[in-house]
Amino acid sequence: MKKVPFVTKEQLEEIVKQYPTPFHLYDEKGIRENARKVNAAFSWNKGFKEYFAVKATPNPYILKILKEEGCGTDCSSMTELMMSDACDFSGHDIMFSSNATPPEDFEMAARLGAIINLDDFTHIDFVEKVLGKLPETMCCRLNTGGNFELSNGIMDTPGEAKYGFTREQLTEGYKKMMDKGVKHFGLHAFLASNTKTNEYYPALARILFKTAVELKEETGASIEFINLSGGVGIPYHPDEQANDIMAIGEGVRQAFEEILVPAGLGDVAIFTEMGRFMLGPYGHLIARAIHEKHIYKEYIGLDACACNLMRPAMYGSYHHITVAGKEDAPCDHVYDVTGSLCENNDKFAVDRKLPKIDMGDLIIIHDTGAHGFAMGYNYNGKLRSAEILLKEDGGTQMIRRAETPADYFATFDFSHIMDKYL
Ligand SMILES: *Cc1c(COP(=O)(O)O)cnc(C)c1O
């Protein structure tokens, strides 16, 4: 599928007059339309709710848009809980799916009335000790162990993953929590990441639905929601097929009708915790080509670096690149497109066929809306960029300013030694 940016060169040239590159740009229209599709895909389920994984794009303006579209938040840390609270998410509109969790994070989650999704059997006692008493609603995360396979092969290796309860621990955990007064239960699992098949959620749903039926028989627990978590992928590469969320919702519905309804569990609510699918395609990293270098290979140096987008350096991930205004030009040059870090893995693309790039060209790096800005860091003293929202009416709004040297120096105890720069 040809990848088309959500902005034109003309629009970008206007935007960069106001905001210097590099910056992350988000497409409000795309975010809203996609969120509506997700809700439509699961509208057959009365209690359906998408809890947006805050870690993917932790920005209050983005959270507010998603809230208006009916989403909750999925948090994994204290600050994500704080951000949800500040954006007026409360109670069961917040899921707390964390691991190796500090006690004060559990306290905060409980204070907000969030649903606590326990990562481990030993956390039952841990949370009880921290809170004095377990909340009446609890969720548990299942790790199925071994490999997780679909028809097209091994998707992931849960047996190597640090998350979740074993199947046996779930039964014991539910019983233990019932003894401690827990009344309402949920079940969660995250078995594969960035899946590019409509089969993933339905297959995961079948596992969780069957497990829920067994758990109900074994423990008599009241299972009220099943959380399919995240993992629905997006087509980063033009050769990849986009997931069809309507087909995914329908696949989950069929599993629901086959497994849960006959077992008397037809009232169970389906929850999701998608991050990438909700935001990934609706963000671009906008940078400018500032250097060209002709040595053993041809290099284009950008004013952005891996601190703005870590995925290519960290996972070797493909992110599509469009040269603004050269959308239809022949890709008759081969470049490594790099950032400025003193790390040779700071390359947005290696041996990429692109149109001829001229100095000053605006470079659009696709699919940076999730796990993009969020994974940013300050190595080499690089400062985090701004985040800009392209609004539905075509206007723009800065939803996070760029860092300045003062931000970078702010955590020194002796920041006065840097006074001349502040
Ligand atoms: C990261 C994460 C998600 C979101 O994953 P995506 O791949 O962005 O959909 C959801 N739930 C949990 C517990 C996570 O850790």
Task: Please supply descriptive tags for the structure shown above.
alpha/beta, TIM Barrel, binds pyridoxal-5'-phosphate, nine-stranded mixed β-sheet, 29% helix, eight-stranded parallel beta barrel, Lyase, Ornithine Decarboxylase, Chain A, domain 1, 2 domains, 422 residues
Structure description:
The radius of gyration is 23 Å and the shape is globular. With 422 residues, the chain is α/β, with parallel strands linked by helices. The protein folds into 2 domains: 28-280, TIM Barrel, CATH 3.20.20; 282-409, Lyase, Ornithine Decarboxylase, Chain A, domain 1 (Beta Barrel), CATH 2.40.37. The longest helix has 20 residues, at 200-219. α9 (245-260) links the parallel β10 and β11. The protein has helices at residues 9-18, 28-41, 60-68, 78-86, 103-112, 123-131, 167-179, 200-219, 245-260, 276-279, 311-315, 405-409; strands at 23-27, 49-53, 72-75, 94-97, 115-118, 137-141, 148-150, 153-156, 184-188, 223-227, 269-272, 283-294, 298-302, 321-323, 333-338, 347-354, 362-365, 386-390, 396-400. It contains 12 helices and 19 strands. Bound molecules: pyridoxal-5'-phosphate. Pyridoxal-5'-phosphate (PLP) binds next to α10.
CATH class category name of the largest domain: Alpha Beta
Mean pLDDT: 97
- CA-CA gap between termini: 48 Å
How many structural domains does the protein architecture include? 2
- CATH superfamily label of the largest domain: Alanine racemase
Bound molecules: pyridoxal-5'-phosphate
Give the fraction of residues assigned to helices. 25-40%
Query: In terms of structural class, how would the helical and strand content be classed?
Result: alpha/beta
Global geometry? globular
Q: Provide a count of the helices.
A: 12
How many strands, what sense, and barrel or not for the largest sheet? 9 strands, mixed
Look up the CATH topology of the largest domain: TIM Barrel
Tell me the number of strands.
19
Task: Kindly estimate the percentage of residues that lie in beta strands according to DSSP.
Answer: 15-25%
Radius of gyration from the alpha-carbon trace, in angstroms: 23 Å
Low-confidence stretches: none
Using the 3D structure, state the CATH architecture of the largest domain.
Answer: Alpha-Beta Barrel
Pfam families: Orn_Arg_deC_N, Orn_DAP_Arg_deC
GO molecular function, one term: diaminopimelate decarboxylase activity
Keywords: Decarboxylase, Lyase, Pyridoxal phosphate
InterPro entries: Ala_racemase/Decarboxylase_C, DAP_deCOOHase_LysA, De-COase2_C, De-COase2_N, Orn/DAP/Arg_de-COase, PLP-binding_barrel
